[in-house]
Amino acid sequence: QVGRGIADITGEPAECGMLGYGVAKQQTDGLHNRLRARAFVIADPGPATAETRLLLVVCEVPLLLESVHHEVLGRLAASYGELYTFRNVMLTATHTHCGPGGYSDHRLYNSNTDGFRPQTFNAIVDGICEAVDRAHSDLAPASLSLAVGRLHDASSNRSPSSFARNPEADRAHFPDQIDPQTTLLRIERDGRLVGAVNWFATHGTSMTNRNTLISGDNKGYAAYQCERLDHGVDYLAATQPDFIAAFAQTNSGDMSPNLNHRPGSGPTEDEFENTRIIGSRQAVAATELTLGHGTEVRGGVDARTTYVDLTDFEVRPEFTGDGRVHRTGPPIAGASCVAGTDEGTGPLYPLFKQGRNRFFDGLVANTVYRLSPRLRDTQAPKGALGPGRRLNKALSLMPEGGPVQLLRIGQLYLIGIPAEVTIVAGLRLRRTVAGIVGAELRDVLVAGYSNGYLHYVTTPEEYDEQRYEGGSTLFGRWELPALQQVVAELATAMHEQRPVPEGRRPAEPSRRRRSRRRAKPDSVPAGRAFGDVLQAPLPQYQPGATVAAVFAGAYPNNDLHRGDSYVRVEHETADGWRTVADDSDWSTTFRWTRTGRTGSTIGVTWAVPDDTAAGRYRLRYDGDARDRDGRISAFSGATEPFEISPKR
């Protein structure tokens, strides 16, 4: 039995720092696409217990932080008891870099949001739980099949010098230095396709750090194309859609969608067009897998999950590669971590660069590592910057561990890692599990960005190169071998049908440092009302043109319109005005601009699709204004109708 659910998880579209690039100036000022959570309950027939079902939720957010994981599990426990738990729930992120931040319990991830943002946090958690509720209610008999293909023009290796350090046996598995495998789990009812989950490795960085409109990036577009363009899904409809498609990540730590190895470059020089193209290529590859002959999924479901503290983890010789025992260390960022990547420079570039920083690395080696041989064994040759154990605990900057998970859906195994895993690191994790459970390697996937976030995981060889990924492997050179040891234990327990200890999960950190922003009353210029059109569209357009209008508006964070829309494109019909596009559509943009201290203007655009029918159309904006007493009132404005004439 399978249930599917989808819900809106879009956070604050105004004055909220975006999470991903860590750029202070990248503050939200509108929407290009809304963000969604897509939930799938997969259950064996029989009594409804946690032992017979799995819950997978693919979330279009930058990171699935432990704050969200903790809160969602708490709410699910309140609603469903022991049905959906730490053991059998996987929450995973698509890793767009253009979503609102501020939803972490750790200070590092709220560095550009002026603290914790309850409104964005609640939008994400509420939406995830809503998607789960819909999936739970949607449970019905279904058949599952698994199909695997190859996609070669939607990713590139952004750290080829690190990749080159790996042994030939590993490099030979990826002759083009990318992981081209695209995997599709197909869901059918009565012979009809009703859902799909796709896994493919490429970063959510087609949009650059210059973009300030909320975007699901390339994986968001892939889902949009499959659902809305190919299957006509109406996101504003109250009923459950007939088809839901999720595009999840795998081991994409060193996989970039920027094929020309520059920010926003490849295959074109337009970041919006690149997002569409790379997303479309993933969607087309997935669609092709729905048409071929997949392998029927058989064998039931299973799950094992344990919490791992990586600050001082002993790694056995069979996993270290040199026949010796080693340990991980406290979370420490390297100089190359703060230098950033080729897709966006970090806060201390050009003071530090990717790769070895000889002067600083030598300084650390001759002071810190000389005084602490144990730290040298865990972190060298990293040019260590901090924070280290004591400072991290005092300031609650970042987590010190996270859940590691193994899910089984018939012959498909998903290794849930709360980090960004490079393709060769992923290969070693996959080989570890496949060898124990007896699975085909292609049927074992790393599900990165799952249930928490601990930055990167590289191979020890890649770590030595100390590019961005190695400098961001916080727990040191032996982090991957430690995770291999953990997933080996999970796989062995699953193979032998015995439980594993859940581990000791830390208490939830304090959220005392909340955003200091205070809501202001909204105002409009004298002689104007909220919703008035300040700049009207032209009287006539053709398909392919862009319609634009500006409204007298209000602060969009007054109401996030979750599950709804700020913008509608309406077509005049015999029965009245019918919505043909909204702020979920690729063809629309919604941009907020502050005017004066309390005024707002709202710019709306609609790129008229080539297949738009001739007729009369208008743009509509729905907003919410706050008065001096804090009361919020909804209002609406619409342009005069304009004509769309047939394309010549």
Structural overview:
A hairpin with a 5-residue loop joins strand 34 and strand 35. This protein is of the alpha+beta class and 648 residues long. The strands form 10 sheets. A 7-stranded antiparallel β-sheet has the order 7-2-3-32-33-29-27, with no helix packed on it. Strands 28, 30, 31, 34, 35 and 36 form a 6-stranded mixed β-sheet that branches. It is globular and about 75 Å long. Helix 1 (66-80) packs across helix 2 (118-137) and helix 13 (423-437) runs parallel beside helix 16 (479-495).
Features:
six-stranded mixed sheet, 24% helix, alpha+beta, 648 residues, seven-stranded antiparallel sheet
Number of strands: 36
Q: Give the N-to-C terminal Cα separation.
A: 51 Å
Instruction: Let me know the largest β-sheet.
Output: 7 strands, antiparallel
The helix content is 10-25%
Radius of gyration, in Å, reads 25 Å
SS strand fraction: 25-35%
Mass-distribution shape: globular
Provide a count of the helices: 16
Which residues sit in consecutive blocks of at least 5 with pLDDT less than 50?
none
**In which order are the strands of the major sheet placed?**
7-2-3-32-33-29-27
Structural class: alpha+beta
